[in-house]
Design goal:
By secondary structure, the chain is mainly alpha-helical. Helices cover 57% and strands 0% of the residues. It has 11 helices and no strands.
Length: 211
């Protein structure tokens, strides 16, 4: 049974974690002028955040890259063998160790400034949502829509699109259908905002972060 002192130490640890400066700020995710370190860190965040809490993932990415020294994140990953990389992920309790290990290993060969959506989706464990999320929030003139659970829920609840799926469509034709509809709805509900700004606004609202 935990004592009062144990509880206090636990709360102090959580407060320190919450205050820790992170490489990624989920509330200010759009940046078209990232350095190489920032861009590679953001892509790693995109891989890890799928199905997870964004704040927790942000802290996890920061911890993962804490020991990289003067290397960029991709240089650090390339310096590890596959078994070493898996052990590193296990030590940091990332979960989904095989998917993330392969995704990071093969991603480290990419040029994130010139790669296409298809290049990203060719990476093991990277789907249409992850690839588009990265491009939307790192390239200024990206014309993509990220059909994550928040966006799809917004379409159903706020826009009365009853047949909007609950999960990200994996069939390209189905994704294109709802992405086109989503763009139209964003233009109506958020006139004057870019797709990236509308995406962040909807995420903020539907995740309960907006009063």
């Amino acid at each position: 049974m935990l004592t009062q002192d144990d509880n206090m130490l636990y709360l102090e640890k959580r407060n320190l974690e919450d205050m820790m400066e992170t490489l990624i700020n989920p509330k200010d995710i759009t940046n078209y002028n990232r350095t190489d370190v920032e861009l590679e860190s953001f892509w790693i965040f995109c891989i890890l955040v799928a199905g997870k809490n964004s704040d927790t993932t942000s802290r996890l990415v920061t911890k993962l890259l804490k020991n990289r020294g003067d290397k960029t994140p991709f240089e650090f990953i390339r310096s590890l063998k596959l078994t070493e990389l898996r052990n590193y992920l296990v030590a940091h309790k990332t979960g989904q160790y095989d998917r993330i290990r392969k995704a990071l290993f093969f991603s480290a060969k990419l040029n994130l400034r010139t790669c296409t959506r298809d290049d990203l989706m060719d990476i093991h464990g990277v789907g249409p949502k992850t690839a588009r999320f990265f491009l939307l929030h790192s390239r200024e003139f990206c014309d993509e829509v990220v059909l994550d659970t928040h966006i799809l829920n917004w379409m159903r609840v706020k826009c009365d699109i009853k047949d909007a799926p609950k999960n990200t469509p994996q069939v390209p034709e189905k994704y294109a259908k709802y992405a086109g509809l989503c763009k139209y709805l964003m233009e109506i509900h958020y006139p004057g905002l870019t797709l990236a700004q509308a995406d962040l606004m909807i995420w903020t609202e539907m995740s309960g972060r907006l009063d």
